[in-house]
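The data layer described in this paper is built around a simple, fixed record for each protein. Because each token names a local backbone shape, the row as a whole describes the fold. We quote a single record here, exactly as it is kept in our systems:

***
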Amino acid sequence: MAEEENKAAAGDQPAPSLNIVGQYIKDLSFENPNAPASLSAGQAPQISISINVGAQKQQDELYAVELTINAKAERDEKVLFSVELVYGGLFAIKNFPENQLHPLVMIECPRLIFPFARQLLATVTQTGGFPPLLMEPVDFSSIYRQNLEAAAQQQQQNSDAKPN
């Protein structure tokens, strides 16, 4: 009955849906190159973190979205640990307008799988002998906008560089 109401409200159009079909670790690497010396107490390390989002259509209405997270901790110019994680989700996306698909795949899908990737990084760094690496929440909307701006600038530079 609720499905019939949704169709009627949308003018007999099925309601949009976004479902996680599955989640996976594609790649996980943890290095502690100076163990056991890296585990000794000292001043707080400098930690750098980068995150990238990639997506690929697998089939009609099925998308793979992957987060690539790299984190490195250094103290006195020595690497304490380095971790790389490629964590993905497979999403079934149905009945969304075409103009909403790209932001949905690049913002909402990463937002849904990020907590799992974050927990995995915390567990791996803790198991490696360090305090758990607790990443702050990520604003995927901001990353999306920055990537769009960078792509627009690159396109402008390419068009300016072409001879007439």
User: Anything to note?
Assistant: Helices lie at 2-9, 98-127, 140-161. The longest helix spans residues 98-127. Residues 46 and 74 are 5 Å apart (CA to CA).
